[in-house]
């Protein structure tokens, strides 16, 4: 078995592996970190915007509460005039946007309560501060004023006793618009988050595509270098084979002269004949290697497959007779295909020779052709031998892989090379009951398939 050196290939693979890291995990971690940071940022922005929206309504309530307290505290005392003007002031403030009701309670006396708007919405029992009640925001504020009434007619005794009087104001604001703004803000943040997530996913996809593209380019460079190396290696091997065949021919020629002239000893004569046989055997192996390595140009033509098989039958008849084999053909009559005649002849010769080598004595070898599902022709060569071992099924068409005694391991490799050159598919499968089936698919037709398969069998 011949093995080609692959030190350069392994060196290239190591270089590309170092040049192209495996950043998928790192890239995924970075994307997840960015996604988490983006989510936290959007949440913080949402909380901030909601606070601003709420503060806007709260500022309006503070302004109204301040206006109520200032309108009362601007007087010296809570006089009847102030009491008379206070409802008008409250009605004016209640006409502001989002205001549902305003109430002022003087001195904690329920009888001195002044209300404008929907009084049923006011929660009098709430402490001072901001309170959310159903769909309203109620701002409760407590303030005082210095009650300093004037003295009537210059008397030294005032009309009412001086002192400090406490007040309590309640402003009820509608939160409906605020809730709508909060809803719009939440929906906008969700949309931004979804779009940002999609953008990160797109960035990740582009990153993965870029990484895979770089890896593909690296593999392409490796395969290109490997192909160049193998092509140069094949050219060198072909040249070496040519150079080896020439001295072999010279050795065989001189040895043949010695045999023809006759040697003095019988064992010397036998050894010289053995040298000739070995030279012939090595020359045959070299010829097979050259046939495998040679990249001949295809000469595509229309040919009758039945005539070609008839020629091969005549060529292989002695091998068939030696084992008492029968070669049956099926579906060949009247069929014309497009192929290189010489190379197809070599392909079928190798398959039939392989079948003859493994077929048991007095068995049948069948060569059939039928139309496959893709409209092209399919040729199968089946024998009743032991079949291929599972250990070598995946490598049957590789060079120098064989289990046949005396085989070179190049016959099926040549079959695959010829099939690939014609853009055909080649493969192996076990027989229906026993044996092996080698098939060639994708053969282009030059004539329509006749109705029904025609069967011809010749026994020898």
Automatic annotation (TrEMBL):
GO MF annotations in UniProt: protein histidine kinase activity
Transmembrane segments: 190-211
Domain of life: Bacteria
Gene3D superfamilies xref list: 1.10.287.130, Histidine kinase-like ATPase, C-terminal domain (3.30.565.10)
Keywords recorded for this protein, A-Z: Kinase, Membrane, Phosphoprotein, Transferase, Transmembrane, Transmembrane helix, Two-component regulatory system
Domain Histidine kinase span(s) in chain numbering: 239-446
InterPro entries per record: HATPase_C_sf, HATPase_dom, His_kinase_dom, HisK_dim/P_dom, HisK_dim/P_sf, Sensor_HK_Regulatory, Sig_transdc_His_kin-like_C
Enzyme nomenclature, EC number: 2.7.13.3
PROSITE patterns linked to this entry: HIS_KIN
Enzymatic reactions: ATP + protein L-histidine = ADP + protein N-phospho-L-histidine
Pfam families linked: HATPase_c (PF02518), HisKA (PF00512)
Alphabetized PANTHER family for the sequence: HISTIDINE KINASE 1 (PTHR43711:SF1), TWO-COMPONENT HISTIDINE KINASE (PTHR43711)
Name of this protein: histidine kinase
Designated gene of the protein: zraS_1
